[in-house]
Amino acid sequence: MRVRTTLAAWGVVLSVVFGSAQWAEAQTVRGRIERWTPYGIYPATAMAVTLFSRDRGRSYPAYTDNQGFYYLQNIPPGNYVLEVWVGQLPVTRPVSVLNRPYNDIPPIRVR
Fold it and tell me: What region does 68 belong to: left with phi over 0, alpha with psi -120 to 50, or beta?
């Protein structure tokens, strides 16, 4: 009886530890790119967005949808640079990804 109770307790501990570790790596970074024109502000569709980590030496690419939104999933917490590719030069913004399910980035306007 005591062995079963101990095994059950370890099973609960392991599922909490490994379950929370898996959750900590599953962050989503989301935001919107807007295109500024003399006639108004419009969603920037099919625009390349890259989240780059100098510490990890890794980048996470995405494209904006038809409303200008982008979603980068499974991003580990840390400091990054968000690059929005406009022509041949990127517009960059520093981004801190926190340990929470969604990290919302304020809209970025490009020409």
Answer: left
